[in-house]
Amino acid sequence: MFCSHHEKVSIHLKIYEMIHWANSKNTSISRSLMAGLACGIVAAVLNVAYGYFYRKATAFTGATLLEPLIMFVAFPLLFVIAGLIFFEMTDSIKKGGLMFTLLFLLIMGAAMVINLNSAEGGKEGLLLGIIIITGFLISFLLPFLATHAKIFTDKEEFTESA
After folding, report:
1. Is 112 within the bounds of a domain?
2. Residues whose CB falls within 8 Å of the CB of residue 100, separated by 6 or more in sequence, listed in order
3. Where does the pLDDT of residue 157 fall: very low under 50, low under 70, confident under 90, or very high at 90 and above?
4. What 3-state DSSP class applies to 4?
């Protein structure tokens, strides 16, 4: 029932290690999530602007599924999921950031090929632009924001890095 002094120290050390591990992981995952959310908002704005100008230039009226409201919900959610994937890849794979970028560039290329082979009715240009914008933001902006030393840092990290 009663612990010796050595057992108490060992328990306190284990608790300290668990808290320290959770804090360090939490910071990394929170950075990845915040980077994903920020990139998702940027992607939504850019894709809505691209869609607006594409529709004006081509008089395209189809693909109402890609309305701004859906974009402002779907893209931040997609990018938050991509942020989680980025965190897991960088946390568990050596050179995970590079692997993440290559993976999403490959996915973007495959989506472009599939879009060009299957899209009809004038929406291939609209979808192609959205795929390119989204692919480059996931591949390059998300890793940059998630790993930048002074973006999305808490007070402790900022003082440690300064």
Report:
1. yes
2. 85, 86, 89, 90, 139, 143
3. low
4. coil
Residue 128 domain-assigned (yes or no): yes
List Cα–Cα distances, 57 to 51, 82, 120, 126, in angstroms. Answer: 10, 32, 18, 11
Q: d(Cα 79, Cα 32) in Å, to the nearest integer?
A: 10
Q: Per the domain annotation, does 14 fall within a domain?
A: no
102 found inside a domain:
yes
Rounded average pLDDT over 24-32: 66
Give how many domains the chain has, as a whole number.
1
pLDDT digits (tens, 9 = 90+) for 104-149: 999 999 999 998 888 676 778 888 999 999 999 999 999 999 988 7
Question: Which residues have CB under 8 Å from 114's CB, separation 6+?
Answer: none
Q: Which domain holds residue 101?
A: 32-152+154-158
Greater model confidence, 79 or 63: 79
- Location of structure tokens 């929170």: 30
Please give the structure tokens belonging to residue 44: 């939504």
